Amino acid sequence: MRLAALAPLVAALAAAPALADIEQTTATGSVAEVMDRLESAVTEAGATVFARVDHGAGAADVEMSLAPAELLIFGNPRLGTPAMQADILAGLHLPLKMLVYTDSEGATRIAWIEPEALFDDLEIDDDAQYVEKMEDALASFAEAAAAG
User: Fold this and answer.
1) 3-class DSSP assignment, residue 35
2) What distance in Å separates the CA atoms of residue 94 and residue 118, rounded to the nearest whole number?
3) What residues does 110 pair with on adjacent strands?
């Protein structure tokens, strides 16, 4: 009986590290406006945008509701290729992604997973220069997109 009572606590503790690997910031403007700024920041930095996924529109297509949420998928071979040279399985996590969404309180948020965390189970050094550049780029893109 005691073990059953501990199950929620154990589950919460197990999820905590995963949540800690997600970076988030609050942004000014609608999801579409913030995503436009994010896409501009990414392309101005020389990265390639592969897709812009509108999750809200996808939900509407199947007659379901979802708060506004868009995902940007992008990359730069100058950073991604060295990661894949170190461990080809990095290709499971690349290209990089950032999510812009409306949270439960109505705020627009930008979220992304830290590259160091993406590569945790791979043969990639956490201190590799390309990992640090990815982290810096994501933070920079978020900062540019968040400002109204």
Assistant:
1) helix
2) 9
3) 25, 100
- Tokens 């948020």 identify what position? 109
What digits encode the pLDDT tens for the residues 53-73?
999 999 999 999 999 999 999
Does the predicted TM-score (pTM) go above 0.90?
A: no
CB 109 within 8 A of CB 24: yes
Instruction: Show Cβ contacts of residue 9 under 8 Å, excluding neighbours closer than 6 positions.
Output: none
Note the pLDDT tens digit of each residue in 89-107: 999 999 999 999 999 999 9
For residue 2, pLDDT over 80 is answered with no
Check if the beta carbon of residue 68 is closer than 8 Å to that of residue 32: yes
pLDDT score recorded for residue 148: 72
- Cα dihedral 98, 102, 108, 109 sign: negative
Q: Which two tokens stand for residue 131?
A: 């990992």
In sequence order, the 6+-apart residues with CB closer than 8 A to the CB of 115 are: 96, 131, 134, 135, 138
Thinking of the domain 21-146, which architecture would CATH place it in?
A: 2-Layer Sandwich (3.30)
Question: How far from the centroid of its chain's Cα atoms is residue 32's Cα?
Answer: 16
Instruction: Identify the CA nearest to 143 among candidates 7, 41, 43.
Output: 41
Instruction: Determine the residue type at 45.
Output: A
